[in-house]
């Protein structure tokens, strides 16, 4: 997009691809899956117009970020990447906006490095202690994509039937449901979407092409590890941590029809 600056920053052994727009207080934007820096393109423009310096990155193993060590694959490593990024850019404190699994990284950054966070906004993902997540996942239905994609070989076989653009298209259509998409024992996850199903209204063919090109570059191997197969590793790394306090102001934004509410704490269903 016009005006957005692209660059690479060496941090924690990787060359992280970042994009920047605007000047002022820094807002760091953290994506999820099947997302990428590009997922924040509209918000970057809005933030810049409002007097902020927006930075959207590609996590290790995603998009245009280079030199990812496949053996370093958990949320704590991603937090270390962010710390190295801020140090390299000489940034003391930032605001953080994160969605999907990027919210887990944002939360961890908030309680592991509270001195670096001015404020945190999480989109779609309530806070959970890492040690609770493996147990919570045990109660996820077997046909849920989160459980399916956590099994090595299962998503690889599912995705291997399609080109990258079709994979991205079907995942985004799947994720637009207002109830949890559950596959039967005889179905693959991507079979829940028909070939004739249209793109979501907010996604254009041009957008799909951008996503497809970026995922052609990165592949899906690392995105299946982080987030879907790293919950036990996250929990093990943080098992001895007692303080998960985030001193900075925290905002959770979640839609009434978001199916994550079916898996979340009942208190999130209350109307205020």
TrEMBL record:
Every AB hydrolase-1 domain range: 25-130
Recorded superkingdom: Eukaryota
A molecular function (GO) term: hydrolase activity
UniProt-listed Pfam families: Abhydrolase_1 (PF00561)
Keyword annotations: Hydrolase
Presence of the UniProt keyword Cell membrane in the record: no
Keyword Magnesium set for record: no
Transmembrane segments annotated in the record for this chain: none
Family as reported in the entry's similarity comment: Belongs to the AB hydrolase superfamily. Epoxide hydrolase family.
Protein name as it appears in the record: AB hydrolase-1 domain-containing protein
